[in-house]
Amino acid sequence: MSTLEAQQNARFAALDPLLPPIAPPPAANEPLVVSTGGRKAGGLLTHVVHAPGSWPALWGPLEIHDLTPVPGDSGAAGLAALLDAWRERLRGTPAGPDSGCTVTWPSRDAEASAVLLAHGFAPLTCLAVRPPAPPEDAGPARVAVRRAGDGDVEALTGLRLAEWHYTSMVGTAVRRPGARALFHAEVVRSLRFSGLVWLAEADGVPAGLAACALASPAPGDSIHGRLPPGRWGYVDTLSVAPEARGGGVGRALMAAAHGELLRPGVRGTFLFYHPANPLSPVFWHRQGYRPLWTMWIRRPAWS
After folding, report:
1. Do 118 and 172 belong together in one domain?
2. Phi, then psi, of 235 in degrees rounded to 5
3. Does residue 84 form part of some domain?
4. N or C: which end of the chain has fewer CB within 10 A?
């Protein structure tokens, strides 16, 4: 382990006890090293281009430049120096409107938040965690929750599309052609492979869904280096039909989901939500979730 990594791990441990040690980076990353105030700061740069019509293209810019900072003990000054050097590295690089620069950093680091805001970044997505907790109120009796099956594919697809349309206004989603077919395929995949999909009905009418899974951090996935090792419950999507919001549908779905996800040996549950969404942060905080990591974005990318 390098000195910078050891310093960074010590800072993370002081910031938040749930932050895991730094994960080994993919070999394809490009290093970035700067000095500020006599201290070294490092980082890893990644450039990804998603194909139009692909699943990732529904959730953000087609072209993403990402920085994984490792400022060590240089603190906010080191992060600022890394962002300045990154901007210079990208100077002259073509960047269209469908592009962005991203940084993911611990949510509790207020000093880093100030630096990112000063460099034109905005908080876009939070990875939030919830420890195992006692059973919750299942919501009003008029809301019935059951495990979804193959006969519910069209209803589930419609609910997921409605959530995605809303997220395109307040989160990461980007409206693109062909979305319905991608969501239909994703619903079928969720039913067949995780099986942890619930449908809520109010007076017999589909009112919401919860699509979940069980996951363990592993190299190459989105939670590697983000969560401590072990088994976690993942809340992929919670969608409540617009006309059913405020009626306890979300609470009923999460009572069922948490009851199934929190099996013996599961460390807790996690999900991603958007801070700018006027509905989800309040709901998830009441459900016992709190931010662990925040993904920041600058759109379009520096050029």
Report:
1. no
2. -95, 100
3. yes
4. N
